[in-house]
Specification:
Helix content: 10-25%
Number of strands: 18
CATH architecture of the largest domain: 3-Layer(aba) Sandwich
Number of helices: 12
Order of helices and strands: EHHEHEHEHHEEEHEEEHEEHEEEEEEHHH
CATH superfamily of the largest domain: Peptidase S8/S53 domain
CATH topology of the largest domain: Rossmann fold
Shape: globular
Distance between the termini: 55 Å
Mean pLDDT: 92
Strand content: 15-25%
Largest sheet: 7 strands, antiparallel
Strand order of the largest sheet: 2-3-1-4-10-9-7
Radius of gyration: 22 Å
Low-confidence stretches: 1-5, 474-484
Amino acid sequence: MTIRALGTPWASPGERQYSLPTSLMLKLALGEAPAHVPTVRDIARGALAAATSIDGGAIDRIIRERTGGFRAARIFSAAGAHGAGHGHLGYDAIEQQTGMARTLMLRVPAGTPVGQLCETLAQLPTVESATPNYVAVTPFDAAHALAAPDTDDGWAPREMVRLAEAHAIEPGDDGVVVGLVDSGVEKHPEFPHTFRAGFDTVRLESADVAPGVQLLGDHRRSDGNPEDRFVGHGMGCAGIIAGEGLRMPRGLGGACRIIPMRALAAARLPGKTNAVGLGAISDLDMAMKLAVDLGAKVINMSFGTDDSALAPHSPKPHADTVAYAIARGCILIAASGNNGRETIYWPAAYPDVIAVGAVGADRRPTAFSTRGGHVALCAPGEHVLTTAIEGYQYATGTSFAAPFAAGAAALLVARSHRRARPIDAETVRDILMRTAQPFAASGVSGCGAGILDAAAALAALDQDLDRALGQPGDGDDDGGADDG
């Protein structure tokens, strides 16, 4: 059972994607956002109260006619805001253009026909879009707990992506930061210095989920403590990116650092014993923007929303935050999905996002890996040894293939910076795809260019930089020992 199978009578006809029954997202046209509406973060801090009016005109009138009353807040704080109560002040041109300054979250009473309300609001000339607050669910089957794995175990997936050879070229840089938008993290011996200060954007009420769905642990308080005590999905991704290598192979990102952004709450679905990660689109988007503003150069997004489950003509999730991250120079990595079909998942399907599928030990795409023309390449995603909330685990899914690509991207950024050259998302995608290894069998379609080869990607970057600088050699060949 998935959460969307529980039904959403408040949604539009034909919509199968679960959405919150008391929440919607409203993006106003450029120049139409009122100055007085505070941010979610300032409201959570107690610095300001939610707005009960938006425009004093048609928007307010329509919402009140359908709901009787509402509360509104800006989802995103301004990157340049300083101090509590000022998050809605000082948005720059990029934040205005991409919609960060103009997107509101509305809380409405239970029983509101949210889908119909969105359709009505979207017809107003001052409204650019209105959409239900969809919920992304990241399934996570409890893995066999490993308190202390064999130190030689877990190397096969890393050998496949040529981790050791890659680290011989570029060990990584602790100045390169990967944003991990996921279920949160926990203290662990494999991360003595890896985690920078992160944030928890989860704000869900018990009334937000269908009867029978149990929210676990902290799910109402946005704060600076992105801990995960129930799911372990974020911990699995973190180990693949930047584990220290004590009782498992080192993370592919080497010396990179991680900003943990908890945007997926822990929930137990009816008839299930294992917790899943469950996140409102508003919480995920807030976490993505905040990771960018806190300095993440690479962002790993091991979550997604099935396009076929959305109502026809519904705005696609994460479009504005993806545009914002790209405008700020970030490299976005996403899991392709786990339904084994040719399907579009968001954010993986956006052209600016590097979508990653999964291969098994046989170097063939796994049966569960979602396929499509948008998939850039594949990485190991089956029985991968990585960190857990306590100890270690074997993880399976495209959720755990994406972090390999995120780690490789972090190495490319480190290498490029070491040679005093900037690198952008388009260049990273191009290098990863043209250096990918072939699958074990020919004729594979919908799974991208092949299998990630981190060492070949770094070598190709050096060659590209040498050509750009008019130098004949292979670039720095000392393993990155100096900073010149």
